[in-house]
Amino acid sequence: MRLQNSAIQPMPIAASTETGRARAWRGSLLAGVGVIAFSGSFPATEFAMRGLDPYLVAIGRAALAALVAAVCLKAAGAPLLPPREHLRSYGLIVLGVVLGFPLFSGLALHAGAGTAHSAVVIGLLPAATAAFAVLRAGERPRPLFWAACVAGALSITAFTLTRGTGRFAAADLLLVLALLAAAVGYTEGGRLSRGAPGWRVISYAVVLAAPVTVPVTAVLALTTHPELSAVSLAGFAYAGLVSMFLGFIPWYAGLAMGGIARAGQIQLAQPLLTLVWAWWLLGERFGVATVAAALAVLVCVAVTQGSRRVPEPRRAGAPGNAGGV
After folding, report:
1. Where do runs of H (alpha helix) occur along 138-267?
2. What is this structure's pTM?
3. In this predicted model, what pLDDT tens digit does every residue of 181-205 receive, in sequence order?
4. For residues 194 and 316, what is the distance between their CA atoms, to the nearest angstrom?
5. Alpha-carbon distance 179 to 149, whole Å?
6. In whole angstroms, what is the distance from residue 258 CA to residue 262 CA?
7. E strands within the chain?
8. pLDDT for 238-290, tens place per residue?
9. H helices then E strands: how many in the chain?
10. Computed over its alpha carbons, how large is the radius of gyration of the chain?
11. First to last CA, the chain
12. What residue ranges do the domains of the chain occupy?
């Protein structure tokens, strides 16, 4: 009997390991859906700024998202504000992805950085997110993960720089600030999504910022003399509804499920997806360098997704554990 009992013990362990791997891949898939949504952010912002002030676009997109989020929270019977014990983390999300990234990246585009050049931010963002995941979320990726992470960042950075002037410009300071802001917001959102649905995390964040974003948006709309057109309105709607709200739902869920550092590497593909948008909407053409960069990024993403996460995300007592859907 002892032999039989000991023989069947490894089976639940193997099943558990397999379940963990399947969960990690599902997380990467969800993160990929978020990346597809985010990849249109820069083109949408440029379209919006063809008739709207850059500050109005940056702040107004958060105000638009807050209105939609408030309706969703009310429909779900959830409170409009997050639990008090998690206000610090939600404050970091507000400063990071609700205000910081839209403002800094929008100003960089307005300063002439351009969509392709601004993709440098996205090329470096997965590495920065992985670093913050170590500092804030207790994740410990393996050396192979870091090697692939750095290789992917270098590949996409070299690619985007060769498409531009070949050097960093003044607007790149704004892009670096946008990079750091997004990395903080992604990490905190991923942590909170371990215990609460991703839609609720981003909803609480944009609603928490509403006392600032809504009145500022109203003032800017009255004082900046916006020139409304179908293009500017479509770009603004995408930035507010997709980039600022809908995209974060699968993104945060993916980070929580697949690991912030690991699933975050899916974003290495975002600059190339952004260029697809630029080709489709703006008529830009691809060259050999684009294909080479795409292959390099795909290899790096494959390596990072094959790396195991250490440790497994916490369940009991995880930050943001509000329960429900």
Report:
1. 143-163, 171-192, 198-223, 230-237, 248-258, 260-264
2. 0.79
3. 999 999 999 999 988 999 999 999 9
4. 9
5. 16
6. 7
7. none
8. 999 999 999 999 999 999 888 887 888 788 788 778 878 877 776 666 667 76
9. 15, 0
10. 20
11. 44
12. 27-306
